[in-house]
Each structure stands twice: as C-alpha cells, then as structure tokens.
C-alpha cells in the first residue's frame, strides 16, 4: 500500500486508537485523520480531498443511523466507506451495503479479518460478512429518494429530523433563513413528503436495528 490517507470516524477515542494501531502494524506508512462526530467527519473530508478510505462507525453524535454513510457517499462518491460497528445484525449489514458502503466490519472481528477487509477495499474490492438478510426494496427506494437531495439539502434534512426551526437551521448551517425555506420546500417535493414531520420520520427510518446476531 502506498502512502495513503485514511479517515477513522468513531466517537470512542480508545477504539480510534486501536484501529490506528492495527493499521500501523499491518500496513505501510500512511496518514491518519480522525473524526468523533458527523460534523467533524464532514469537515475532515472537505479539508482533505486526498482521503482514500473512510472507516465509519454508525453511532456518532450528529448522525441518524446510516445518515453519515449516505452523506459521504452522496458528497464524496469517489471515497469508499467501510462501516465498523458493534451492531452486526444481518439487516444492518445488508442496509450498509445497499446504502453504498464498500465493506462492513463487526467490531468483534479478529484483527486479521479487519486487516483483510481494509486491504480488500483499498484494492478496489468489497468485503462483507455472510448475511442472512435479504435485499430490501424499501431500503433501495429510500436510498434512491435521498440520493435526489443535494449535499446542502441533506444537511437541512438532518436538521429537520432534529426538530430545528428554519431560524435555527440557518444559524446551524450559516445560511440565510430564506435560503433554508427554499431548501425545505425542495426537500419536501423531492421526498414526496407533505410536512416537515413526515420528512423527519423518513430520516428515523435510517436508524439501524438494535441488537446483534446470536
């Protein structure tokens, strides 16, 4: 592996350190970036266009389940994402794949398996554990609907899901309030939602199932 830039996004500093330690042990020299929230993940990607791989935990502040994955895939489609999660429910793995992840690594996986998965994705492949869950047409439809949104509209949608008013969204994203209103109107139209509440419920559908496989 040549000098690569890898981004580890997880809100637990000890786990970030463990992953970075694994990478240093198994791979050639590389640059590592870290993010502990959905906001810092977005900032890191915007400031470092040379990122070659994102290792992403689903449970981070500011993320609604798979929303961070969808955001990265929508705004940076050239950057592969490997989800690393303690929730290895079969449908969680399947949804990660359907929402654009290049791989899925359970946090309980052995170091050898983690290294193999990461190398496989860096080489242009994909890596997923064996899955019992079937492909969901509902998830495919949801991903297609969300893919219609621009990156800024997706950010506004997540703010809607947090229950923020237009004025609060404007302050949060550094936008004019009228601009937020335009975005909200476009979001509702694209998602075929009749209200902000319905759009928020749609985002809740991105939350993964709880629990793990036996």
Structure summarized in a few sentences:
The modification 4-aspartylphosphate is found at residue 57. The chain has 214 residues and is of the alpha/beta class. It has helices at 13-26, 38-47, 67-75, 90-98, 111-122, 137-147, 151-161, 166-173, 177-190, 196-204; strands spanning 4-9, 30-35, 53-56, 81-85, 103-106.
Mean pLDDT: 86
Number of strands: 5
- First and last CA, distance: 36 Å
User: How big is the Rg?
Assistant: 17 Å
**Biggest sheet overview:** 5 strands, parallel
Give a written overview of the molecule.
The protein has 214 residues and is α/β, with parallel strands linked by helices. It has two domains: 4-122, Response regulator (Rossmann fold); 137-204, Arc Repressor Mutant, subunit A. It has ten helices and five strands. It has helices at 13-26, 38-47, 67-75, 90-98, 111-122, 137-147, 151-161, 166-173, 177-190, 196-204; strands spanning 4-9, 30-35, 53-56, 81-85, 103-106. It has a five-stranded parallel beta sheet with strand order 2-1-3-4-5, with helices on both faces. Helix 7 (151-161) crosses helix 9 (177-190), helix 7 (151-161) packs across helix 10 and helix 8 (166-173) crosses helix 9 (177-190). The longest helix is centred in the first third of the chain and has 14 residues, at 13-26. It is globular, with a radius of gyration of 17 Å. The mean pLDDT is 86.
């Amino acid at each position: 592996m040549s000098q690569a830039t890898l981004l580890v996004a997880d809100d637990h500093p000890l786990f970030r350190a463990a992953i970075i330690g694994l990478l240093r042990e198994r791979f050639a020299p590389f640059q590592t970036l870290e993010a502990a929230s959905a906001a810092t993940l977005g900032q890191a990607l915007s400031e470092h266009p040379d990122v070659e791989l994102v290792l992403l935990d689903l449970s981070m502040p500011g993320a609604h389940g798979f929303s961070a994955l969808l955001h990265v895939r929508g705004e940076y489609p050239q950057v592969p994402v490997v989800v690393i999660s303690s929730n290895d429910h079969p449908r969680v793995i399947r949804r990660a794949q359907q929402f654009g992840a290049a791989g899925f690594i359970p946090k309980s996986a052995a170091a050898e398996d983690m290294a193999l998965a990461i190398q496989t994705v860096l080489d242009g492949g994909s890596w997923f554990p064996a899955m019992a869950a079937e492909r969901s047409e509902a998830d495919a439809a949801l991903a297609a609907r969300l893919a219609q949104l621009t990156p800024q509209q997706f950010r506004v949608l997540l703010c809607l899901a947090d229950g923020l008013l237009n004025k609060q969204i404007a302050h949060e994203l550094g936008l004019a309030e009228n601009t937020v209103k335009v975005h909200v109107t476009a979001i509702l139209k694209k998602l075929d939602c009749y209200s902000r509440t319905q759009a928020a419920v749609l985002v809740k559908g991105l939350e993964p199932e709880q629990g793990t496989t036996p």
